[in-house]
Amino acid sequence: MCSKKEFIDFMADAGVLTFGDFTTKSGRKTPYFVNTGNYKTGMHIATLGNYYADLIVSSGVNFDALYGPAYKGITLAAATAASLYRNHKINVPYFFNRKEIKDHGEGGALIGYIPHDGDRIIIIEDVVTAGTAVRESLQLLKTVADVAVTALFVSVDRMERGTGERSTLDELRAEFGINVYPIINTRDIIESLPEGDGRIAKMEAYLAEYGGAEW
């Protein structure tokens, strides 16, 4: 498995990780931004799938299928499933949801594998800020079958507060009893910057204002 620094460099080279003055969907002013929509080449998605697959294998989590929430999670789940098979000889199904339920043809809200009662599902996401998409995914999956969502895998843990004092990912752990595994977190990004870099102070200030209680 490649180092966290290599993954951060990969994100920066792809234009996914950028620094500046941004506003998140929640209205918070942030000195850095992660836009996974900027992964746009075969090399990008193959490499990203490798990182997710390596993280899943190293986590030791047992699972029966991968789920990727639309839209970005669709590509992530497909790339991860391919990397699991190509690099680790693990052949598991994947599936994703439609934003709008189809009422003709095969119909339904899901595309790909259809979960069964007792299946252990892992969710593949990009960046979780408020956790809204994850909560929606959990609700949707429970309407399809009596599945157990065992883990959530994300590219970046922004380490921000959720609805309370804890981080969003800690809230998801506590609320739903699922394990959450990020490839990197904000602290890793800070530590990757050269000593004396002015971006460090801005990111530390951001964590001090919006970070979860554990930090």
Can you give me a brief rundown of this structure?
This protein has helices at 4-13, 42-59, 72-88, 132-144, 168-176, 186-192, 198-210; strands at residues 17-23, 29-34, 65-68, 94-102, 108-112, 120-124, 127-128, 148-157, 179-185. The chain has 215 residues and is an alpha/beta fold. The longest helix has 18 residues, at 42-59.
Explain how this protein is built.
- The protein is of the alpha/beta class.
- It is built from seven helices and nine strands.
- Helix 2 (42-59) crosses helix 3.
- The protein starts with a helix and ends in a 5-residue tail after the last helix.
General shape: globular
Radius of gyration: 17 Å
Q: In percent terms, what proportion of residues is strand?
A: 25-35%
**Series of secondary-structure elements, N-terminal to C-terminal:** HEEHEHEEEEHEHEHH
Instruction: Classify the secondary structure makeup into a structural class.
Output: alpha/beta
Calculate the mean pLDDT score and round it. 90
Low-confidence stretches: none
The biggest sheet amounts to: 7 strands, mixed
Q: How is the CATH topology named?
A: Rossmann fold
**Number of structural domains:** 1
